[in-house]
């Protein structure tokens, strides 16, 4: 899971996060000074989520067409 987050930060990808309580959040992860916390930028603002509360992470990759 941490590797997916690291790759998303490196490439500027959006991620989908599901927490253990069932709530979801979609946004762009950012580097955090606390390795136990996931920092995300969303249209609603910045969120900090403890990594131990995250149960699923998916990277959302947009492919741009040349058309």
From TrEMBL:
<protein>
    <recommendedName>
        <fullName>DUF2642 domain-containing protein</fullName>
    </recommendedName>
</protein>
């Amino acid at each position: 899971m941490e590797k997916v987050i690291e790759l998303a930060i490196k490439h500027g990808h959006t991620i989908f996060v599901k927490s253990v309580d069932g709530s979801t959040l979609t946004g762009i992860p950012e580097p955090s000074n606390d390795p136990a916390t996931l920092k995300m930028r969303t249209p609603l603002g910045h969120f900090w989520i403890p990594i131990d509360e995250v149960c699923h992470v998916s990277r959302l990759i947009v492919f741009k067409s040349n058309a």
